[in-house]
Design brief:
This protein is mainly alpha-helical. The chain has helices spanning about 10-30, 45-65, 75-95, 100-120, 125-149, and strands spanning about 5, 65. It has one domain.
Length: about 150
């Protein structure tokens, strides 16, 4: 499996990461009035695991390339990834509008993970999938335990 991968810069992996980070950059500069995320987490160990897996996810998306992947194009998987990005942005707008409920929290949690997942599937980056799945599980536990239950 590893023989199909090479270390090289994956431009579109970085672009996806930066696109997903746009709402986060806005959040850090202009926090919403009713920000529920400024609290102490009760899932500190899970949060640390999520952080580490997120770093490996980003590295694998941006610097590992499967030589069997085709040139980037608007495939169904990429279109799905774009749709999840848009859903994530919509969730941020709803959150900034002051609507905070379980659906919004899940909208801030699941769509970015699924955007990464579908991008990795399109790029045949199965190594990144491992880190994406682990990050998604940790991120979901964090959101559900800290803000939904």
């Amino acid at each position: 499996m590893l023989k199909n991968y090479r270390l090289c810069f994956e431009f579109w992996g970085l672009i996806l990461f930066l696109i997903i980070m746009i709402p986060n950059f806005i959040y850090f500069v202009f926090p919403p009035l009713h920000d529920i995320f400024q609290t102490n987490s009760i899932t500190e160990t899970i949060d640390k695991a999520a952080f580490v897996s997120q770093i490996f996810m980003i590295i694998s998306l941006c610097f590992l390339k499967n030589i069997k992947s085709k040139k980037i194009a608007f495939t169904p998987l990429i279109i799905i990834a774009v749709c999840f990005c848009l859903l994530y942005f919509a969730s941020f707008l709803v959150y900034y509008a002051g609507i905070i409920n379980g659906f919004v929290i899940l909208g801030l949690t699941i769509p970015p993970c699924l955007a990464f997942l579908f991008f990795a599937l399109d790029r045949k980056n199965y190594i990144a999938l491992i880190f994406i799945l682990f990050f998604t599980i940790c991120h979901l536990i964090y959101a559900v335990v800290n803000f939904i239950i």
